[in-house]
Amino acid sequence: MLRSLSEQDGFTLLELVIIIVIILLLAAVAVPRIVDFSSSAEAAACKSNQNNIEFALTMYSASVNKSIAFFPETLDVLVPAYLDYVPNCPSGGAYEYDVNVGSIQCLEAGHGRI
Ligand SMILES: [Zn+2]
Known about the structure:
With 114 residues, this protein is mainly alpha-helical. It has one domain. The protein is built from two helices and two strands. It has helices at 5-8, 13-64, and strands at 95-98, 103-106. Strands 1-2 form a two-stranded antiparallel sheet. A hairpin with a 4-residue loop joins β1 and β2 (103-106). The model has no long low-confidence stretch (mean pLDDT 89). Bound molecules: zinc ion. Zinc ion is lined by residues 46, 89, 91, 93, 106, 108, 111.
């Protein structure tokens, strides 16, 4: 039994359309989850940065004045004695530094530590 070359190999147009639809459905499910994992990882890294900066501020304060808390005017003073560098928010958010209490707060939504 001989079949012509066009009948032997390849997919029909309907099979290709079904495969493309299945791939698009899988992508529609997977892509939002991947984006969500990425943003939650950035928020966790940002919170870790804030904790590291505040720990460095505590170390600075303890070394400068042991009786009252004393924090530097800028975070650059912490480099290199207490930090290798002043970290930035991985999402591009800005850190707000309160010199009176030595606290750091990221202004990016979802990066707060409260
Ligand atoms: Zn942040």
